[in-house]
Amino acid sequence: MKINLSLKKYIEDNILPIYQKLDLAHSGNHVFDVINKSLSIAKDYDVNLDMIYTIAAFHDVGLIKDRKTHHIIGGKMLAEDEFIQSIFTKAEIKIMQEAVEDHRASNKTAPRSIYGKIVGEADRAENMDKIIERCLLFQMKSDEDTFDEIYPSVYDHIVTKYGENGYLNVWLKTVYVEKMLSDIRELLKDPIKFKKYSKNVFERIKV
Q1: What is the mean pLDDT of the chain?
Q2: 138 Cβ contact list (under 8 Å, min separation 6)
């Protein structure tokens, strides 16, 4: 899958570095995982891969300004980027802006295009260990935080989002997300086992 080289270089030099300024849950490999999974999922659909790549790269950049509205901010950043405007048509930019706006897991309605569905699915398509790790990292405000201090918030978030009645909406039933949800929901059936498993993840990332 070949991406426009000038587009790739621009995003690598100017957009992806923004993620290194974000919280621990978003400053690591998350954006690269979303890009790679988006391109992998896109193989099964008739879509423009340059657009998929761009949406995935911009999907969380809005966190640099605000968490609650990051999807709206990120879409606006994409649409107002002069280089992006030089590469894509106005119609393509509109689709990409909407896809960034629509990727958020808490959205109650389906993304407005297949582009939003693909990147939204890729954003959810992490394995159980990675989900728990990112939740732990997000709650860790400093290296001094202990597992017992942050675990209640981590557990509540995972149950609320990924549990049997969680708010996570899945728009494309890929093997990535289906397995992740199955694994998490099975482990959540035993709260003691889930806590022990989460503590093992915590100890790995603290090393």
Answers
A1: 93
A2: 23, 24, 25
Q: Judge: domain 5-124, CATH 1.10.3210.10.
A: yes
- Residues with Cβ within 8 Å of residue 76, at least 6 apart in sequence: 62, 97
State the Cα–Cα distance between residues 198 and 160, nearest whole angstrom.
16
CA dist 195 and 25 (Å) reads 19
Sequence-ordered list of residues with C-beta below 8 angstroms from that of 170, at least 6 positions apart, any chain: 121, 124, 177, 181
Please report, as a single letter, which amino acid is at residue 29. Answer: N
CB 177 within 8 A of CB 170: yes
Instruction: Summarize the confidence of residues 10-26 as an average pLDDT.
Output: 91
Is residue 72 within 8 A of residue 148, CB to CB? The reply is no
The domain locations on the chain are 5-124, 128-206
- The pLDDT-based confidence of 143 (bands split at 50, 70, 90) is confident
User: Percent of the chain at pLDDT above 90?
Assistant: 78
User: Of 197, 27, 59, whose CA–CA distance to 128 is shortest?
Assistant: 197
Which contiguous run of DSSP H or E holds residue 6?
Answer: helix 5-14
pTM of the model: 0.83
Beta strands in 30-78 (DSSP E): none
Q: Which of 20, 26, 9, 21 is nearest to 130 (CA)?
A: 26
Predicted local distance difference test score (pLDDT) of residue 1: 62
